[in-house]
Design brief:
Blueprint lengths: L15 H17 L8 H12 L8 H8 L5 H10 L16
Length: 99
């Protein structure tokens, strides 16, 4: 594995920490886009709060993008991806779309 990984869709050198946080966001997107009947109401509500709370709270999307990835602009792009989500994309990686 290279020291400095530059993913096609990330326009900055990705550190291992960046890759880890992108994986966390990727998993959260996959869980959030799972049909509601497959998730508990509490988990779905927690995921909604993770993605759509506008205040940076520890380890929500705004916090991760601004504090850990230093990319505040990513919040809007991720939220847009969620709103455009189609079932055929269920297993498509977050990193395969533009960050």
């Amino acid at each position: 594995m290279k020291e400095d990984i530059v993913a096609e869709d990330i326009d900055f050198p990705a550190t291992p920490e960046h890759i880890l946080w992108l994986a966390v966001i990727d998993r959260a997107i996959a869980d959030y886009c799972t049909p509601a009947q497959e998730l508990t109401p509490y988990f779905k509500a927690d995921l909604y709060s993770f993605f759509f709370c506008n205040e940076p709270k520890p380890y929500n999307l705004v916090y991760i993008c601004s504090m850990l990835l230093d990319r505040e602009d990513a919040v809007k792009k991720i939220r847009k991806r969620i709103s455009n989500y189609a079932p055929k994309e269920k297993h498509r990686s977050f990193r395969s779309s533009s960050f």
